[in-house]
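sorry for the late reply, my laptop died twice this morning and i had to redo everyting from scratch. anyway the thing you sent over, i finally got around to it. pasting the sequence first so we're on the same page, its 360 residues, then the predicted structure underneath. double check i copied it right bc i was rushing
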Amino acid sequence: MAKIDAFFKLMHEQGASDLHLAAGQPPALRVRGDIERVKYKVLSNDDLRGMLYEITPEDKVKVFEETGDVDFGYEIPGLARYRSNFFMQKNGVGAVFREIPSTIMTAEDLGLPPVIKKLSSLPRGLVVITGPTGSGKSTTLAAIIDEANKTRHDHIITVEDPIEFVHNSQSCLVNHREVGLHTKSFSAALRGALREDPDIILVGEMRDLETIALAIEAASTGHLVFGTLHTTSAAKTVDRIVEVFPSGEQAQIRSTLADGVRAIIAQVLFKRSDKKGRCPALEILIATPAVRNLIRESKTHQLNSMIQTGKKYGMQLLDEAIMDLYNKGWITGDDAYIKANDKAKFRPLLREPPSDFTEA
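ok and here's the structure:
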C-alpha cells in the first residue's frame, strides 16, 4: 500500500470531495464545500514529493518535472478513483486529488429533474453541461451515461483528461479514452471517434476551438454528443461557444449550433443547511424550435424568457431552482444569494448586507 493511500482512506471516511497536499503546509480536506485542516505534521517538499511519486506513472513524472503541472487518474480498487493534479508552488510541490466515487449515482439518487434522465434517450445532437469547477458536472454526466448504458444498445466513447467515472459495458459497449495516455488531445480523439462507429460521444472538456468545432460537427452528423464548459447560464454558454470562433465564421456556427443543440444544463452545487450533504440547482434549456430560432438569429438575450415559458418541456431558470431549494429549507439565504444570477431577487433573504461590495 502506498503511503498516501492513508490520506485517501481518511478522505473517504470524512466524506471529503478533495484532498489538498502542499509542501510547507499540513494536509487539508474539502468537506461539504469547506476546507478543513488535517491534524498532521507540516509536509516537507522532499517527503511530499516522495509520497506523490510513489503513485505517479513514470511518464507523468517526466511531464511534471519538465512543465511544473500534470494531471492523471489514480485508483484504489474497492475504494475510489481520484483525479490528480500536481503543481509547483512557492514552497515546492503541491497536489489536489478529487475523489470519483466507484458507484455511479442515478439521476433519482442525485435529485435531478426528470428531464435530465430523458437526455440519455436522445437519438443525436449536442448536450452541454456547464458550471464552475466542483459544481457536479461530471457526476450529472455520469448519471446520464449510466442510464444510456443500461437502456440502449449502442457504442459509447468517452474522452477525458483524466478518466473519471468508469462505466462497465452493460447493454452498451463502452470505451474510455484518456488524453495523454490513449490519445494526444481531445480534438485528435474526436477526429478518430468519427471513424470508430460511435453512437454516443462524451467529451470531458470542450476547451478549445478545434474541439468545440468537432463536437458540433459530430452532433450534426447523427451522433449524440455530451460535453462540458465553464459558464454560468444557458445563454452565456451559447455566446461562449460562438465567440470561440473567428468573427467571419460566427454566423455559420450559430446556424450549425442551432440545428445541432438539444439541451444546455447550467449547474451549481450547494452545501445542505438542514443535514449533511450537498444538493444541485440546475438551469435547463431544451432546444425547442423557438429556442433554435433565437440562437440562429443571435437573440440569446431572450433565452431566459423562453426558459420561463418552457416549463412544460422541463425548462427552468437557475434562480428558480435555487429559490426552490431555499423554500424547501435545504440551503441558506446567504448561499442562495452568492450563487444566484439575479442578485436583487435574493437580497431580501440575507441576514446582513452583502459582503461583496461589487454587488451592492
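Residues 107-348 form a domain with the Rossmann fold fold (CATH 3.40.50.300).
thats about all i looked at so far, will dig more tmrw
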